[in-house]
Design a protein that fits this description.
Order of helices and strands: HEEEHHHHEEHEHEE
Largest sheet: 4 strands, mixed
Radius of gyration: 25 Å
Helix content: 25-40%
Structural class: alpha/beta
Distance between the termini: 75 Å
Amino acid sequence: MGKVKIKKGDVWIDMTPMSDVMVLLLTFFMLTSTFVKQEPVRVNTPGSVSEIKVPEKDVLNILVSNDGKIFMNMDKTTDVAAVLDDVSGQFGLKLQPAQHKKFLDDPMWGVPMNELQSYLNLDKTKMPEAIKKYGIPTDSVPGKTGDAAMSEFQIWVKAAHNVNPDAKIAIKADEKTPYKTVKKIMSELQDMNENRYYLITQYKKTED
């Protein structure tokens, strides 16, 4: 008896609805994601049981490395540009358009004002490594703002709040950062009547 041959038919599945869903999901994540700026130095924050979250916008971030170097950034490029114009004007620095653009392209700033132009003249590929050796000074700079002697750190903070009065301060220090460095930063903020700020830590459960 001969074998019965079953006719095979091609199975066709319409993938259009799945493609539409994938595109919608991709668009959703792109629009809702917050991109983290690259930091000039690696910082391992200490553990904490606090669950208070730092705001996602209108924040002046202060990064403190394990050797005490201070860097800053703000989430809005327009705010950074206005702060740079304010501080550079106080120090009598006239930055070229190319230097200005390089400053805005940097994820964080943290170079003493007397070194800023030299730093911004570097090749863009060398800047990420070069910034690691600097840091914003906390030494007093007399006669630059009309107030009592302020440090460059305080001048940057004051300029940031002049530009954006709603900006919240968030301090992110390494777990190995010397206590005297963090205390110095807090003292300088207190001298400016900046008594409210966030301390960024890693969330740690009490039983850990």
